[in-house]
Write a structure and sequence with these properties.
Elements (H helix, E strand, L loop, with lengths): L2 H39 L4 H27 L12 H27 L3 H7 L1
Helix pairs in contact: 1-2
Amino acid sequence: MSVVCRLASLFRNLLRRARVEREMDAELRGLVQMLAEENVRAGVSPEAARRATLLAAGVAGGLALAAPAAGLLRDILYGVEPLDPVVYGGVIMVIALVGLTAALVPARRVTRVDPLVALSAE
């Protein structure tokens, strides 16, 4: 295969890949919008509905990818089964604790600043 044919094939594949990514992005945005609208009809505020939908999608995607990844890590795990629910629960708790700490530390600092001082600094 000549170099020109290879470059043409590479360019076509890049364009095709970009189109597929755009289509998948549009599909996922539509799905999130549809699920958020269902939550809004259930009485949730639009922003909270979108946030809950994205959270649920992230959790589902993470769990879906965690099982195959655990199989790949089987050789380096010692004394733990790859799909042990106690380990999954512990990891979820640690990640939640880190996230809460990352959010609370700056929030506590902000509450100590006088609003007038903060506004006059701008």
